[in-house]
Amino acid sequence: MFTSLRQRVARISACFKARELDRDFEQELDSHVSMLAEDYVRSGMAPAQARRAALIRLGGTRSLADQHRDARGLPAVEAVLQDVRFAVRLIAKERWLSAAAIVALALGIGANATGFMIVNAAFFRGLPFEESEQLYVVSWQTRRADRTARLSHAEFQEWRASARSLDLAAFSDTTLNISGDGAWPEEAPGAWVTANAFAVLRQPPLIGRTFDARDERHGAEPVVMIGHAV
Amino acid sequence: MPPGKSDILQGTLDLMVLKTLDAMGSMHGYGIARRIEQLSAEALQINQGTIYLCLVRLLQKGWIRADWGSSDNNRRAKFYAITRSGKKQLVVEAEKWERVAGVIGRLLLLGSER
Question: Which residues of chain B have pLDDT under 70?
């Protein structure tokens, strides 16, 4: 077991020292050929012929170098790296084509990312309330798609009274004028809500209390909740 | 996992290289190849280059180690020597071989007794 771990470590480190190891092996093979040639010379061959015979006896040096590289490193990884290097060279060679491709990719990726961000915020993540998937807007639906129907307060009361499995709060969009001492009045988007709005949304206050049923009664004292935006 | 044909050949070469280094001490690649050829009475004319692939394998497994040195003719060569774990592996492999040889020997004897 440890031998195979050793082997893996050796193979990985060989990838980093590739050039050095190649040179080493080339030198080793060269000595081998020389020593073999010497033996042939000693047995009577001419030096030039001896060297040639030695090279033949050894086998192809190029293929040996390749086999050596495969045996000592990670051939699969090195093949991928070689392809990457080739790709980089090609990209650098065809500047305009590469630029056009990169721009097209960038536009595509950018559009996709933006689209996803929007869809994610609107549909997947849901509203920033507790159990927001159980939050619904309930209303009348008209037969004509371009008209919305409004609910009257009386109808709302009736619904609230007879609803058993829901909490109902009502809201109505409006624009409000806010004015203070000497300051210009400002318009602000707002809504009329029933007192249980914050309870239905399950939005607790940071300090103090939210509106409740007491504030809805006739003649109740006005109360104010202050939010960060205000 | 049953060894393939090339694995058996590789294993045999591994064994021969380890045994050569164990018996003769530190040697360079050419010397090992020559020695194996001599011992096998020239019956094993291995392609001398394949010895280096075997040596790479043995180096990776930690059974031999390598150092640069100079040969008798003052030529720069890489010398290989067996390590302690190499010696242990040699014993294991040798035992395996003897067992196989013993079994086959008995089998062949069986046939000739008829």
Answer: 1-10, 41-46, 111-114
Q: Does B77 contact A31 at a Cβ distance shorter than 8 Å?
A: yes
As a whole number of angstroms, the distance between CA A216 and CA A160 comes to 14
CB-CB: which of B47, B73, B75 is closest to A59? B47
- Report which DSSP code applies to B65: E
Query: pTM above the 0.95 mark?
Result: no
Mean pLDDT computed over A161-168: 84
Q: Nearest CA to CA, how far is B1 from chain A (Å)?
A: 15
- Name which of A64, A39, A68, A18 is nearest B75 in CA terms: A39
Return the amino acid letter for A10.
A
pLDDT tens, position by position, A143-157: 777 666 778 888 888
How many beta-carbon pairs below 8 A join chains A and B?
64
Q: Mark out chain A residues that contact chain B at CB-CB < 8 A.
A: 3, 6-7, 10-11, 24-25, 27-29, 31-32, 34-36, 38-39, 57-61, 64, 67-68, 71-72
Of A7, A24, A64, the CB nearest to B60: A7
Residue A192's beta-bridge partner residues?
Answer: A172
Q: What is the pLDDT of residue A124?
A: 72
Whether the Cβ atoms of residue A156 and residue A170 lie closer than 8 Å to each other: yes
Mode of pairing for the β-strands spanning B76-82 and B64-70: antiparallel
The ipTM is: 0.75
Least confident of A85-94, A174-183, B58-67, B99-108: A174-183
